[in-house]
Design a protein that fits this description.
The mean pLDDT is 94. It is globular, with a radius of gyration of 21 Å. Helices cover 20% and strands 24% of the residues.
C-alpha cells in the first residue's frame, strides 16, 4: 500500500494518507474534522480505513458533537451496554481514568464488542488529556495473523465457528438478588453468539482471524481441550511484534480503527496519571464466513457417548 493524496475542498487542503506501519496503520492529514467532510473525503477515508485498518488524524481540536458527526459518516452509532456513556448522549463513551478511577481491563487483546450478533465495523477514539508518559495503544493485524499461518492450519480453520460472550463485564454484577436479576436480563438481551473464526472483509475481500481472548469462549462443537489448544495458538500469534502498530498518543488526536480485521490492547502503564478520551462506535454487519461450517460430528469424537445422547434413559429430577 502506497501513500496517497486526494484533492479536497475541506478548508482548501489536500487530504494525504501516509503509511506508518508495515501491516497496518496510516496517518491522515489535510482534513479538518471540526468541519463537515465532502463526499470525496468520506469516500477516501472509508477506503483507507478498510485498507490500512488504523487511521490516525493528528491535530484535531474537536468537540464531542464533531466526533459524533464524523462517526455518522460511516454508519449508525451504537450504545455500549456496559461502558461509561454520558447520560445526555449515550452513544458517546467517556474514559476519564486517573487516581481513584483505574482503567477497565482493556489491556487484553480484543476486537470491540464481539459479543454482539453484529459487532462494530469501526471505533473512533479522540484524545483530550494524555499522560506525560505511557498510555499507548497497540494494534494487531489479524489479516497478517491469517497470512502467517501454514496452508494446513488455514485449511483446518476454514469454516470453523467460535462462541462469543460478554464475559469480562459479568464482574459488574454483584452476588445480590438484584445483581443476579440484572445479569440474567443482559444474558437475555445479549445471548452467546457464534461468529466465523475466519471472516471475509466486505470491502477488501481479505481474510482475517476473528477470535480474541476477551470475548471468545471456545470453538463451537469441539472438545474443550482441543478448542483451548487452538485458540491459545491463535492468541499467541496475535502477540507477534511484527504484526503490530503501536500508537503513541498526543492530545487532540483521533484514531479510527477497523474492528473487522484488527485487534487492540490499551496499555495501562500510565496509571495513576490522568488519561481522558472520548469514543464513538459504529454499527457493523454480521461477519462473513470464508466457508460453510463443518458437520458437528467431524469436530468431536466420543469413545464413551455422553448421557445426553440417550433419549430413553431415566429422567433426572430437574427434567421431570
Amino acid at each position: 500500500m502506497t501513500d496517497q493524496a486526494v484533492l479536497s475542498n475541506n478548508d482548501g487542503k489536500t487530504l494525504k494518507i501516509k503509511h506508518v506501519g508495515v501491516f497496518l496503520g496510516a496517518e491522515v492529514t489535510g482534513v479538518d474534522l471540526s468541519q463537515p467532510l465532502t463526499t470525496e473525503q468520506i469516500h477516501a477515508v472509508k477506503q483507507a480505513h478498510a485498507d490500512h485498518g488504523v487511521l490516525v488524524f493528528p491535530n484535531q481540536v474537536i468537540t464531542s458533537e464533531d466526533l459524533k458527526r464524523f462517526g455518522r459518516y460511516f454508519g449508525e452509532l451504537t450504545v455500549h451496554p456496559f461502558s461509561t456513556s454520558t447520560q445526555d448522549a449515550p452513544e458517546l463513551i467517556v474514559y476519564d481514568n486517573k487516581e481513584g478511577n483505574p482503567p477497565a481491563p482493556t489491556d487484553i487483546w480484543h476486537t470491540d464488542e464481539t459479543f454482539r450478533e453484529c459487532p462494530p465495523m469501526g471505533t473512533m477514539l479522540c484524545s483530550k488529556i494524555i499522560p506525560e508518559v505511557g498510555g499507548d495503544t497497540a494494534f494487531a493485524s489479524m489479516c497478517a495473523v491469517w497470512d502467517g499461518l501454514s496452508d494446513r492450519w488455514q485449511h483446518f480453520l476454514s469454516g470453523l465457528e467460535a462462541i462469543h460472550d460478554f464475559k469480562p463485564f459479568r464482574m459488574l454484577f454483584d452476588e445480590t438478588a438484584e445483581g443476579k436479576a440484572k445479569l440474567r436480563h443482559y444474558e437475555d438481551v445479549y445471548p452467546q453468539v457464534t461468529h466465523p473464526i475466519v471472516r471475509i472483509h466486505p470491502v477488501t475481500g481479505r481474510k482475517a482471524i476473528f477470535v480474541n481472548p476477551q470475548f471468545t469462549l471456545g470453538i463451537k462443537d469441539m472438545d474443550p481441550a482441543e478448542s483451548t489448544l487452538i485458540l491459545n495458538m491463535l492468541y499467541a500469534k496475535t502477540q507477534r511484534h511484527e504484526y503490530h502498530y503501536r500508537h503513541r498518543w498526543q492530545a487532540n488526536m483521533v484514531v479510527f480503527w477497523d474492528n473487522r480485521w484488527t485487534q487492540h490492547s490499551a496499555l495501562h502503564d500510565y496509571y495513576p496519571a490522568r488519561r481522558l478520551m472520548e469514543r464513538v462506535t459504529i454499527q457493523g454487519d454480521r461477519p462473513i464466513a470464508d466457508a460453510p461450517p463443518p458437520p458437528a460430528d467431524s469436530l468431536r469424537k466420543y469413545l464413551m457417548p455422553p448421557v445426553s445422547a440417550f433419549k430413553s434413559r431415566h429422567k433426572r429430577q430437574h427434567e421431570i
